[in-house]
Amino acid sequence: MRALLPLVLAIGLLPTSSLHAATPPAPRTFSGELQGAPWRLDVPAQWNGELVMLAHGYEPVGVPRETPMAAADSTQALLDAGYAVAQSAYSSQGWAVADAVADMERLRQHALGELTHVRRTWMLGFSMGGAVTVASLERHPQGYAGGISLCGANLPGDVLAGDLLTTLVAFDYFFPKAEGPPAGGLLSSEAAALPQMALYQGIAAALATRPAQAAQLATRLQVAPDALAGAISLHALVLHELATRAGGMPAGNIGIVYSGFGDDAAFNAGVQRVQGTAAGQAYVRDQLALNGALQRPLVIQFNSDDPTIVPRMQTVYPRLVARAGSASKLHVLPPVGEGHCGFSGAQVVDALKAASAH
């Protein structure tokens, strides 16, 4: 026992501050609900004082949600890099960009109340969450040091709706009355009522019956042939959900002259013409507007061979930014990874650091 006495005395003589310093702070997780939107906030043990608002992508209407809200895949990589991460499940499912922008702003303000001494706040989003990121930077620039849109659908709502409509009328033109899809075509109410898997299977079966037409459609839509059925079914799902949300068809093609569909004269003469509704078009024009007038730095990065956000979509927002005179605020990184949102945790952190450098 005597041999232990000097050790006991030595411990007793250690300053209280030294004992506290030897015990690292524990990671913290907060969760709750704000106006119908589940949320979570994770703070790492070694927090760097910066906050990332993480915006997730498209969630089809009706998909079950976990309670409490589960963390997105990239959360741990951001926590390991020292960032606190706040994320919302959004107050609605589907193409919920307008709701998500409001939900994320509400959560940002709440997170600043939970945390103290936040040095900088970043917005980072994937896919549809990329559109949420861009819209948040345009509408709430005072809240952010900058943003990162990864594999982002960085399209104004009217541009997106028009692109989706093109896909559906083109499919119906090349595959009229095909077995598999509803007899009324992909714009019909029957198609709107189908689950995505059933719609996908019908589209895939139709594509297999006319390979030359399928190849022409894949080329025009900039999608690999083996990803074509999935892309078309997703476009149908999103357009019909947007029409429901907007209270009417959000796009029309009266007077549009199409090109790139092979015999364009025959295509323009035979393709179905659709009149958008006033309510639907007003919704996407007003609620889902993007103008390119950036006041904070924005980093954009895509994956190679993305079947969802294809090259023609990737160039839309940079053109808006150039027209708005904000080109110095936009930084487009070279593509990494493959597919849609094929980013590693390290690549996500690297994109965030690229935004920090600007």
Properties at a glance:
358 residues; alpha/beta; elongated; disordered N terminus
Explain what the structure shows:
With 358 residues, this protein is an alpha/beta fold. 44% of the residues lie in helices and 12% in strands. It has 15 helices and eight strands. It has an eight-stranded mixed β-sheet with strand order 1-2-4-3-5-6-7-8, sandwiched between helices. α8 packs across α10 and α10 packs across α12. The longest helix is centred in the middle third of the chain and has 19 residues. The N terminus is likely disordered.
Task: Please count the beta strands (DSSP E, at least 2 residues each).
Answer: 8
Mean pLDDT: 93
Specify Rg, calculated over alpha carbons.
24 Å
What coarse outline follows from CA principal-axis ratios?
A: elongated
Number of helices: 15
Helix-strand topology string = HHEEEHEHEHEHHHHHHHEHHEH
Span between termini: 62 Å
List the helices and strands and how they pair.
Blueprint (H helix, E strand, L loop, with lengths): L4 H9 L2 H6 L6 E7 L2 E7 L6 E6 L19 H6 L3 E5 L8 H18 L5 E7 L1 H12 L6 E5 L6 H18 L14 H5 L2 H14 L1 H11 L6 H19 L17 H7 L7 H10 L10 E4 L9 H4 L1 H8 L6 E3 L12 H12 L2
Parallel strand pairs: 3-4, 3-5, 5-6, 6-7, 7-8
Antiparallel strand pairs: 1-2, 2-4
Helix pairs in contact: 4-5, 6-9, 6-10, 8-10, 10-12
